Amino acid sequence: xxxxxxxxxVAVCEELSFSRAAQRCFISQSAISHQIxxxxxxxxxxxxxxxxxxxxxxxxxxxxxxxxxxxxxxxSAIRAAVRSSGPRIRLAANMSFAxxxxxxIAGAREAHPGAEIEFVIKPFRQRIAAVADGDCxxxxxRGRVDQPGLTVEKLWVEDLVIAVSTAxxxxxRDDVTLTELGNYPLLLPPEQEQVLLHNVVxxxxxxxPAPPTYGPxxxxxxxxxxxxxNRPDAWTILYADTPAEGIAGLRLSGRPLRVPVSAVLxxxxxxxxxxxxxxxxxxxx
Length: 285
Hints:
Blueprint: H1 3-15, H2 18-25, H3 29-43, E1 48-50, E2 55-57, H4 59-82, E3 88-93, H5 98-111, E4 116-121, H6 124-133, E5 138-142, E6 150-159, E7 161-165, H7 178-181, E8 185-186, H8 195-205, E9 213-214, H9 224-230, E10 235-238, E11 247-250, E12 258-266, H10 273-284
Parallel strand pairs: 3-4, 3-5, 8-9
Antiparallel strand pairs: 1-2, 5-12, 6-12, 7-10, 7-11
């Protein structure tokens, strides 16, 4: 039994899907299925009842899950305990924050030449857990998180991007309204995977006569931009303006769609000059 197998096991338990768990862990679905099968063989029990439509935990899974989470938490605590005592900061984020984060890191290193600042790529839940366990000093997230022992500091507000295929009827317009967009299918990931985006849409359409027309959810192993190519009548909302062949961004008339970007830190974290400088740089980057 390996710690990585327990990590994959927890991901499958929380996602109830091998494909979503694989995406979350940045490995292939066949690889995560193989590792879960090895874990089941090592333990001598079946952990999931699999079908083409669902993944159902067994009674053994219910007993194992809290222990697996405890083991993974201990691993993070061990890494934090033996970490070098020198000036070092670990920033957890995803790649959509890379440009702004690396600019802030460069500024903080210039102010503190001896500092080591790591940019660690982690999915949302793992970012929060890494800060809570002490494995990372801060994490960047969109929206908020309410968890005992953690503090959320708002850094900036980010404009969301309305994206369509260049073949869309509205492509090429100087600006569009939500009412106009509401006539076309909106493609988003399932709500359980992107609660924040769905909340933004609900708030934006709350005062309009009709809600948006939703198309089929974007599968976990597909990208929003590729779905637009396949559905040139549809539109979507992106967190970052990432140009792609065949995709056009639209300017929204009136109030833009926005989300807050925040830093998550432990409430008991002792202030350090490096961390203070890095946060200031993130505020102004």
